Amino acid sequence: MSLVFGDLNEILCVIRLLIQNHAIFAAEHLNTSLMKTKEQIEFFLKSIGEYATETDFDGISAFSKTKCKAKLRKPSSFSNSPDALTFSKFATWFDFGFGAGDVVQWDDSLGLVRNCTQSNVEICFIIDGNGSRIENKSLDVKDLTLADENASNRLYCALYKMGKEFLAPDFEIKDKFIPEPKNIISFTNLKTGQEGYAVIRCVTEDGEVFCFCIVVKGEDPRYNMNEHLGNVEDFIFRISSPSDYPRKAIDNALAKVGKTWNHALLRVEAPDMRVKKGEKYWFVNDKLQPIPATENERILCSKRYYAGNYFRNEEDAVNVSKKLAEVIRNYLAEPQK
């Protein structure tokens, strides 16, 4: 028998009844509750593929949107297969099943969960008495328990030391991403748990990461153009495009200290560095003297701006001319090669 709901409120009402029924059943069989992330929910539903009825899909969709704002695409058809997903099955998995990326244990072994059904768990990485290795294995969900935080960290550290990583949304073991110069990245520090964003300057041969600027969540930005982030082994990196959120987060943090990131020129600068047409600015000439000029928006003014030899006031031009003279003196004092 199929049910037809008039609106979302009726769907949610039925969801509550289904949750109550599945919770009573689960409480009789299981003794733990496992929360899920948005990425785990989306990956689980993608791997299942088929829904039993439209009612089940509407219930799962409303539940997922309420819990973690996950948006599901409605299928064109439904299945009467015994393996098709019902809301009751989904709710049981949501509260008590394992999600992709969870670490489970059995006997003296640890395993990384790739996927989970009501009865089986797919493992893709294992630590046991024989060491750590990438291995696909299917286990009965009843034989597994969720590993504690220390065990979970141990497994992920073993994976990272192999030069691999396992991240959403694909939840596949892949070669660890190493950032390159000019990359805008988000990062997670595996030792401290700190997260943030940065623009990569370089990665040295021994894996030390230097950045033009770094924004750690909850801290003031660092932007001396050669900031040391740490060693690649201690971080997870994700690349972003200049239009993605990490770039916006960097700009927002720099704006608080009167700066902005110019990705085209790879530098931190004042947001109003260039004056309007007809206004005066200053530059340093080839004799290292500060010289005034008028902005005319033509090639010469643009070249000075692009080179960074462009200042809103005489004081800044004087300071830079002194620093340039010092750099030249120090360079001339270096041993000849």
Describe the structure.
- The protein is α+β, with helices and mostly antiparallel strands.
- It is built from eight helices and 16 strands.
- The strands form five sheets. Strands 4-3-2-1-5 form a five-stranded antiparallel β-sheet. The protein has a five-stranded antiparallel β-sheet with strand order 11-10-9-8-12, covered by helices on one side. A two-stranded antiparallel ribbon has the order 6-7.
- Strand 8 (184-189) and strand 9 (195-203) form a beta hairpin.
- Helix 3 runs parallel beside helix 4.
- It is elongated.
Provide a brief overview of the structure.
The chain is of the alpha+beta class.
Ordered list of secondary-structure elements with their pairings:
Layout: H1 8-29, H2 38-48, H3 54-68, H4 87-96, E1 103-106, E2 109-116, E3 120-128, E4 131-140, E5 145-146, H5 149-161, E6 164-167, E7 172-175, E8 184-189, E9 195-203, E10 208-216, E11 227-231, E12 235-240, H6 245-255, E13 260-262, E14 267-269, E15 280-284, E16 290-294, H7 299-307, H8 314-332
Antiparallel strand pairs: 1-2, 1-5, 2-3, 3-4, 6-7, 8-9, 8-12, 9-10, 10-11, 13-14, 15-16
Sequence of secondary-structure elements: HHHHEEEEEHEEEEEEEHEEEEHH
**How much helix, percentage-wise, in residues?**
25-40%
Low-confidence stretches: 1-32
Which structural category fits the helices and strands? alpha+beta
